[in-house]
Structure to design on (277 residues):
């Protein structure tokens, strides 16, 4: 029976026409606190819902406080863990990445989420931190099979570790490990297009590309999106490259054109008039 639940929930994450996904992560607050564009999440959530994106990533607190804004809107991917990784190199950071679970799959079901997401960090300086990351992902994967919930694994090289995050060999390793753990979808870093195409083709689960730090211009964001989809990505998970743009609604409309191969996007998206980036 749980397989039916997984299949139905996964279908909610993907556009029924393109089979791909435009997802906006809104889970930054639990990792780094308030940042530009999402310090007050309410108006941003309203824009994202109105834009008709396929999915959002939220933390338990945001879903509890603003879940009514998401009703009837995008699929919900609930973040189950917290990490210090994104604070590395800042005054509040640590020398290595440390992560822990903060919610359960059962709670995600109770809150109506279609999916959950957990990190899988590799190449830490401290091997016990990678071990803990794998143990956490394995526990959640098992619970997702029990409850029929989609499990998204965010597989990346740890900041401050000994590997480069966009090294194609590292991206390939991380994606394969996530797939072998049972991920239903993988979120990972972008690497060179030719190698990424091979990784996507061989992956055990669909791959969505993380947006990373905000790019300098909207043109750059659109080209990045076009490159990832052309290389075989099933979706985009763009946070700062969406909510730190001058016009969030227009950015989402343009990204949706790229992700879903809409007819108006026959030429280079970067050739069209742009707002401020």
């Amino acid at each position: 029976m749980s397989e039916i639940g997984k299949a139905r929930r996964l279908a909610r994450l993907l556009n029924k026409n393109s089979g791909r996904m435009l997802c906006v992560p809104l889970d930054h607050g639990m990792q780094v606190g308030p940042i530009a564009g999402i310090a007050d999440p309410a108006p941003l959530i309203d824009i994202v819902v109105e834009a008709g994106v396929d999915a959002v990533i939220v933390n338990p607190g945001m879903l509890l406080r603003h879940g009514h804004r998401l009703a009837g809107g995008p699929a919900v991917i609930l973040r189950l863990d917290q990490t210090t990784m994104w604070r590395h190199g800042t005054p509040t950071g640590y020398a290595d990445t440390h992560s822990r679970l903060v919610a359960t799959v059962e709670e995600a079901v109770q809150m109506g989420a279609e999916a959950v997401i957990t990190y899988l960090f590799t190449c830490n300086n401290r091997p016990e931190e990678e071990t803990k990351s794998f143990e956490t992902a394995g526990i959640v994967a098992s619970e997702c099979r029990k409850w029929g919930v989609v499990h998204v694994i965010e597989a990346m090289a740890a900041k401050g570790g000994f590997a480069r995050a966009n090294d194609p060999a590292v991206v390939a390793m991380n994606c394969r490990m996530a797939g072998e753990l049972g991920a239903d979808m993988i979120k990972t870093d972008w690497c060179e297009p030719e190698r990424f195409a091979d990784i996507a083709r061989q992956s055990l689960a669909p791959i969505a590309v993380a947006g990373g730090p905000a790019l300098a211009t909207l043109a750059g964001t659109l080209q990045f999106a076009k490159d990832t989809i052309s290389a075989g990505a099933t979706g985009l998970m763009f946070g700062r490259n969406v909510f730190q743009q001058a016009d969030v609604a227009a950015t989402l409309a343009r990204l949706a054109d790229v992700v879903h191969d809409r007819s108006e996007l026959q030429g280079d998206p970067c050739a069209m008039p742009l707002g401020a980036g």
User: Anything to note?
Assistant: The chain has a mean pLDDT of 93. The CA atoms of residues 219 and 271 lie 8 Å apart.
